[in-house]
UniProtKB/TrEMBL annotation:
Pfam families: TPM_phosphatase. It comes from the Bacteria. Signal peptide: none annotated. Gene3D superfamilies: 3.10.310.50. Residues 2-114 form the TPM domain. This is TPM domain-containing protein.
Amino acid sequence: MLLSEEQQSIIVEAIKAAEKETSGEIKVHVEQFCPGDVLERAKAVFAQLELHKTAQRNGVLFYLAIVDRKFAILGDKGINDVVPANFWQDIRNDMQSHFVMNQFAAGFAVGIQKSGVALKQFFPYQSDDINEISDEISFGD
């Protein structure tokens, strides 16, 4: 198993908490291996999960290949147009400090929370907001 049930629960709860404050959509995808370049693989997963189809183009993907120790964060055009240039790299650095100690749930929780703060700022929750993307973690391999 890539993540224990407890780890999965922590991550899903972090997503739900972040999305209560925003119309943005956060998705976590985990696999064992990442063939080739991690950003290219994350882009493929982003498209496969249809994160580019959110109404405001404000989907965010957290991608992790556990065995290969590769991860990436991708934001869609809507959010990338409004966050600072180093925004995702700063979050990635914060997450990496947990990942190197195999604290995947804690790392994801930190990244999701920080992303949620930015999403709330630029894409606040609307009363008619619908959850466009499942909060559950998706798995590859």
